Amino acid sequence: MDMISPKAIDPAKLDAFLARAVGDLSAGYGGVMVSLGNRLGLYKAMAGAGPLSSRDIARRAGCAERYVREWLGSQVAGGYVAYHASSSTYELTPEQAFVLADEDSPVFIPNAWAVPASMWFDEDKAVEAFRSGSGVAWGDHNGRLYCGVAGFYRNAYRASLVSEWLPALDGVVEKLEAGARVADIGCGHGHSTVLMAQAFPASQFHGFDTHPESIAAAQRIAADAGVRNATFAIGRADGHSGKAYDLICFFDCLHDMGDPQAAAKHAAEVMARDGTVMLVEPFANDRVEDNISPVARLYYAASTTLCCAHAISEGGRTVLGAQAGEARLADVFRKAGFRHFRRAVATPFNLVLEARL
Ligand SMILES: C[S@@+](CC[C@H](N)C(=O)[O-])C[C@H]1O[C@@H](n2cnc3c(N)ncnc32)[C@H](O)[C@@H]1O
Asked: Are 309 and 118 in contact (CB under 8 A)?
C-alpha cells in the first residue's frame, strides 16, 4: 500500500465515513443479538405483553436474568426494544414485534441473520476461491445458510406470490385453477412450491434441486403442511424430468447456475407451447451505478461468496451474479429461444419476470 498523506484527508469526510463504518460494525454485533433473541424466544416472550422487567422477561423465556438484562441493554441501544426509565421496564412495540417476533409476518427478519453467519463461517473458503478462481458449491457451505435463505425469501413468497406475482402473469392463474403442471426449479426448501400447491389444489407441482439436503427438507415441510399435490426430486435445471409443463418457475436460483442459458433452453424444451416461465430474481438495475442501496449491498455481498461461487463450481459458463438486472436476464432467455420477455412486477427485493416462447 502506498503511504496516505495526512494532508489528503478531509476531516469532515473522515468523520462521516467513520461514523458509517462504526454503525455497520455495531449492526454486525447486533445481528448476533437478534439471532439469540430469536433462538431463545426472548422477542416472543415480550410480544404483546406491554412493559416488563428484565426478571419477568427472563422468567417468561426460561433464561438467566443477568444475561437477559445485558441483552436488553443492547436492544435498547439499537432501537430494537423500548425502555421506560421511570419503571425500569422494557417493551417490544407492535411494529418491533411484527419484525422480530411474529414468524408468520411478511417482514420477519431474524432468520435472515443465519445467512451472514454462514458467510463468516465459510470465510476461509471465500479467501481461497478469490485467490484460485475456483468455485464453492451451494452444498459445501455451513448448514445455517439453507434455513437462512429459505427464511429470508419465504416472507416475500407468503406476502406476494399467490396474491400478486402469479396474477401478474398472462393467463397463468386460470390455468392453475383448472389444473396445470408446474415445475419449481432450484426449489431449495420448497416454500414457494408448497404455497402454490396449497393455493391451487387442482394443479400438480414438481420441485427440483441439485442439493439433496434441501430436497429432503422440502419433502418434510410439504408433508408437515399436509400438501399432497407436490413432489420433490433431485434434478438439475438443464436436465430435470417431466414435460408439457404449463408453468416453470425459477425462484432466486437462475443466477446461481453455471449455465443459465442451458437451464432456460431446457425449460423451453419441456414446457407446453403456450407455457410460461416465471423468473423471480433479486431486484437489480442494469448498471452498477444504479445499484447503490442497502438491498443492493446485501445482494452483492451474498452474490460474491454464494451465488458467483456456486455458478463457478458448475463450470461458470455465464456467471450472472445476484445483481444481474433485467437486460442480462432477458438476453439469456432470448438466446435460449424465448420470443417474449417482460417485467411483470418489481418490489424492493425482487424482480418478477415472464418469459414465453
Ligand atoms: C438461493 S437458493 C434459492 C432456493 C429457493 N428457490 C428459494 O427461493 O428459497 C438457490 C437454489 O438453487 C439450487 N441450484 C443451484 N444450481 C442449480 C442447478 N444447476 N439446478 C438446480 N438447482 C440448482 C441450489 O441448490 C439452491 O437450493
From this structure: no
Half-sphere exposure of 262 (CA within 13 A, CB side): 16
Beta-carbon contacts of 17 under 8 Å, excluding residues fewer than 6 positions away, are none
pLDDT digits (tens, 9 = 90+) for 43-96: 999 999 999 999 999 999 999 999 999 999 999 999 999 999 999 999 999 999
State residue 285 phi and psi, 5-degree precision. -85, 175
- Return the C-alpha cell found at 271: 414446457
Task: Report residues whose beta carbon is within 6 angstroms of any ligand 1 atom.
Answer: 138, 149-150, 153, 185-188, 192, 208-211, 214, 236-237, 251-253, 256-257, 310, 314
Residue 151 pLDDT exceeds 90: no
Query: Which residue do the cell numbers 448498471 mark?
Result: 287
Q: How far is CA 78 from the centre of its chain?
A: 24
Identify whether the C-beta of residue 113 lies closer than 8 Å to the C-beta of residue 148.
Answer: yes
On the CB side of 101, how many CA atoms lie within 13 Å of its CA? 20
**Cβ–Cβ under 8 Å, residues 298 and 282:** no
Distance CA 150, CA 162 (A): 17
pTM: 0.94
- Report yes or no: 303 and 322 within 8 Å, Cβ to Cβ: yes
Q: In the chain, count H helices and then E strands.
A: 15, 9
| Residue of 194, 253, 265 to test ligand 1 pocket, by largest number of atoms within 8 Å of CB | 253
Grid cell in block for residue 130 = 478469490
Residue located nearest, by CA, to atom 13 of ligand 1: 186
Best of 111, 210, 219, 352 to mutate for ligand 1, by most ligand atoms within 8 A of CB? 210
What band does 7 get if pLDDT is binned at 50, 70 and 90? confident
**Dist. CA 357 → ligand 1 center (Å):** 23
